[in-house]
Amino acid sequence: MKITILSLFPEMFEGFLNTSIIARAIKKEQVSVEVINFRDYTLNKHRKVDDYPYGGAPGLILMVQPIADAIKALKTERSRVILITPEGKPFVQETAREMAFSEEYDHYILICGHYEGFDGRIDHYIDEKICIGDYILTGGEIPAMAITDAIVRLLPGVIRKSSSNDESFEDGLLECPQYTMPEVYDGYKVPEILLSGHHAKIRRWRLKESLRRTKNLRPDLLQNRRMRDEEIQLMDEILIEESKEKDP
Question: Helix-strand-coil percent breakdown of the chain, rounded to 5?
């Protein structure tokens, strides 16, 4: 897979691309990531890429020409061009998985915005709009890193499959609490079930605590969930336990 990031600030990606999982994936040639300054494609002799909007409005917007020409030069039949913008669809784990295992695309072009946004004609040159959350950032570089990280870690061989399968959102639930040494710290103990060696009971406990954590912290994730019989039973147990805690 190849990921191309169009940004006015390529230097922001130096640490991101040279550490941890991303760096290892690039070194093992599981993914290729390039960051291109779309200022290199401007026809303006002063390398200008922004200007005041027609009709009058505060701030500057990015001109269509540099970005459109960059897309034309980089896009292939297997490319998907993604504009990072607040008006895009929410980027969730399922989106990352669809992109990582797409049979249609093996090249993603991520466009990072700045200033007050893009010339509206950019819509004619892109395939999709994505947003990582309902808040405002200075530019699209941090979202581009988040999207790249979420995709790359799903690629075959980048991390152990068992590790990624148990993470939050993979099954539509938050991950259960995890513990390590020491068994007791400051009076707080590791749950006895995790020390029992009984794998079936441990699996059931983890699912139950995952459901409990999701219910209490992200109940929205359960609204449209089609629960299995075991999950319904565990949720009933959770509700009974919490009811007893409120009314001992």
Answer: 45, 15, 40
